[in-house]
Specification:
Layout: E1 6-7, H1 10-19, E2 22-27, E3 30-41, E4 45-48, E5 51-54, E6 59-64
Antiparallel strand pairs: 1-6, 2-3, 2-6, 3-4, 4-5
Length: about 60
């Protein structure tokens, strides 16, 4: 995966977490939470630096390695 890639499936989230990629969460054009590393994820949420974000309504993009 590379910068600009959007995380969609569990495989994407697992790889991003394992590799320590910096992820940005957005809704539309609004950044919901500052970029950081994924600390956990499930079908319902993704945690960035411990802050849980609702997975179905946000887009998660790799912004750093």
């Amino acid at each position: 995966m590379e910068i600009g890639h959007y995380l969609v499936g569990d495989h994407d989230f697992e790889e991003a977490k394992k590799m320590g990629y910096i992820i940005k969460a957005t809704q539309g054009h609004i950044t919901i939470y500052p970029p950081g590393k994924i600390t956990a994820y499930s079908d319902d949420h993704v945690a960035i630096e411990g802050k849980r974000l609702f997975r179905p309504v946000n887009r998660f993009e790799i912004v750093g390695m």
